[in-house]
Amino acid sequence: MDTNFVSELARKLARAVPDVGGDLDTMRGDLEKNFQSLLSGAFDRMELVTREEFDVQRRVLERTREKLTRLEVQITALEQQSVADSLSKNKPKNKRD
User: Fold this and answer.
1) What is the pLDDT of residues 13-41, one digit of tens each?
2) Where do the H-state alpha helices sit in 1-97?
3) Is position 97 within any domain?
4) In degrees to the nearest 10, what's the CA dihedral of 44, 45, 47, 52?
5) 42-81 CB burial, b ≥16 within 10 A, e <16
6) 37-41 contacts: CB < 8 A, separation 24 or more?
7) How many CB atoms lie within 10 A of CB 88?
8) Domain presence at residue 29
9) Of 64, 59, 47, 65, nearest to 1 (Cα)?
10) pLDDT over 70 at 94, yes or no
11) Are 5 and 42 contained in the same domain?
12) Distances (CA, A) of 35 to 5, 31, 39, 81, 82
């Protein structure tokens, strides 16, 4: 997970907390650290992947689909050839007297 994203999100959440008096800077700093820890843990449990990893897997899937399509065409051609061969073997031969 992108640590900059998590840090920035934690910072924004800490700034969004309303002023309740006291030492606000210290409280916001503590909140930011807590938010960052919670967010990092949550994102880790979600097992998210980066965009790069996603794109690599998408390309692998596209190549796999292309290969599957080619194999299906080959299988169909082989099945048709097998049927044609079977029909030609079972054809009665003309006997000459």
Assistant:
1) 888 877 766 677 777 788 888 888 888 88
2) 3-16, 24-45, 51-89
3) no
4) -20
5) eeeeeeeeeeeeeeeeeeeeeeeeeeeeeeeeeeeeeeee
6) 39/6, 39/9, 39/10, 40/1, 40/3, 40/6
7) 8
8) yes
9) 47
10) no
11) yes
12) 12, 6, 6, 66, 66
Taking the C-alpha atoms of residue 38 and residue 30, their distance in angstroms, rounded to an integer, is: 12
65 and 47 Cβ atoms separated by less than 8 Å: no
Domain hosting 13: range is 1-48
Tokens of 44: 């880790």
- The token duo for 51 is 């965009």
Q: And the tokens for 3?
A: 């640590």
- Is 55 in the same domain as 82? yes
Q: Which two tokens stand for residue 92?
A: 């009665």
Residue for token digits 């997970």? 1
Amino acid 24 reads L
Q: What type of residue sits at position 36?
A: Q
